[in-house]
């Protein structure tokens, strides 16, 4: 299975990507996680990406395309992959298509997660992220067992700088301008399935499983 998860920030793509990847033995490729890891490790790429990310702007296409190309050559991609947060621009989608052609593979589905703007803002402002690992929680909807401490690794939970209100507004504007055009890009290729992402994690996960089991796009 080779999947792309599309949708505005805060629609729950990352959470569902984790689930679908572990259920199906797929490699989850999250450009956001890869970039945050590079920032934490203070690599040259991380240092370049940080100021874009803090402001909620997109990191240059050439940087993320390089990251994804490397990951797609990873042998753990054998059973397939789920791309979370990539592509985010039409040029990224075009580059991805070229990389897949080179590897003689193609995408199976692009899932477009749909959640109201109001809910997205609630999800993002209440999100708390571990400073040490990629785990995320929500103050109201998915609190950690001990306040401020990551259930997975015991690291401190923080509010990402790009989950603060001003950066959220920028991220949503960037999504509307640069990422939303990918909906019709993939629709035209017959790859797009819409998914209501507004329920609980479990409900969305069950609906996603049903959508993935159907052959025809929605
Ligand atoms: P995310 O965790 O997917 O919301 O990504 C966090 C931030 O990483 C974004 O706001 C961007 O600054 C950067 N980023 C992640 N994926 C991409 C991408 N495909 N293209 C450009 N920037 C990205």
Structural overview:
The chain has 218 residues and is α/β, with parallel strands linked by helices. The chain has a domain at 2-114 and 177-212: P-loop containing nucleotide triphosphate hydrolases (Rossmann fold), CATH 3.40.50. The chain is 48% helix and 15% strand. The chain has nine helices and eight strands. It has helices at 13-24, 31-40, 44-55, 61-72, 90-102, 117-125, 165-179, 181-188, 201-213, and strands at 2-6, 27-30, 81-84, 109-114, 127-130, 136-138, 157-158, 192-196. The strands form two sheets. The protein has a five-stranded parallel beta sheet, with helices on both faces. A hairpin with a 5-residue loop joins strand 5 (127-130) and strand 6. Helix 1 packs across helix 9 and helix 2 (31-40) crosses helix 3. It is globular. The model has no long low-confidence stretch (mean pLDDT 92). The protein binds adenosine monophosphate. Adenosine monophosphate binds at residues 9, 31-32, 35, 52-53, 56-59, 64, 85-86, 88, 92, 162, 171. Adenosine monophosphate is lined by residues 9, 31-32, 35, 52-53, 56-59, 64, 85-86, 88, 92, 162, 171.
The stretches of 5 or more residues where confidence is low (pLDDT under 50) are none
Quaternary arrangement of the chains shown?
single chain
CATH 2nd-level architecture of the domain at 2-114 and 177-212: 3-Layer(aba) Sandwich
- Shape call: globular
- The first-level CATH class name of the domain at 2-114 and 177-212: Alpha Beta
CATH superfamily of the domain at 2-114 and 177-212: P-loop containing nucleotide triphosphate hydrolases
* Total count of helical runs of at least 4 residues: 9
